[in-house]
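Continuing the batch. This is chain 6 of the set; chains 1 through 5 are on the previous pages. Same settings as before, nothing changed between runs. Recording input and output for traceability.
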Amino acid sequence: MQASDKLFAGSIPELYDSLLVPLIFDVYARDLAARVARLAPQHVLETAAGTGAVTAALVAQLPPQCAIVATDLNQPMLDRAATKPGLGGRVTFRQADALALPFEDRSFDAVVCQFGVMFFPDRIKGYAEARRVLKPGGRFLFNAWGEIGTSDFTKAVHDAVAALFPDNPPAFLARTPHGYHDVQKIRADVKAAGFSDISIETIDQVSKAPSPRQPAVAFCQGTPLRNEIEQRGVSLEAATDAAAALLAQRFGTGPIEGRIQAHVITAGG
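Output for chain 6:
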């Protein structure tokens, strides 16, 4: 992972939240929150909360007496999350590193992380931190994207942008969001962090967009892929146009649908 892979700043948080969250994150956020709700927790910690997709789903599915703490390393992402209606009175937002959580041992009934572990520079340490702050019997729930070929829109954008820079293709999407997809590796890492009861479920969903342009803007301008494009001296609009054109070629020019896939992990013990 490169340093720019973790840079969510400028206009990225707004575009990420308005375009990418409904495109690929919301459906998995509702699933993850439902799994947390079935545990009937009283204290929940969310790490790598981003702009609050899971946070909002947790608020919708957990009773008012459940305390929710949402953390992220990137303050601009938390700032965006804090503006969402209904979260301010229910959620405590705090900037924090998932690899060095500022909480006492055995503080939470559940720790949840949506599509954040791929960004951890030391995943085993991050998992061990989640285990440290869990109460006895608590559960750590997280998800990670499947291989990039299992997410149709993402793969199309990756291919289109790579074609613009054949000698030095931007690889953020394959390298980081979709770079941690081997379930045996995930299981081994979670076990190495001290967890003994581990389940992994692979879930396919459908991503929908009103036009090819929307996912092109979402990925090219609303993720750190933007940083790689700008570093290479081609205009952001040109890269976005190329991505939109390939999406239209593969999926049509009107409303489009594509497959997305993620692994959902629950760990305890």
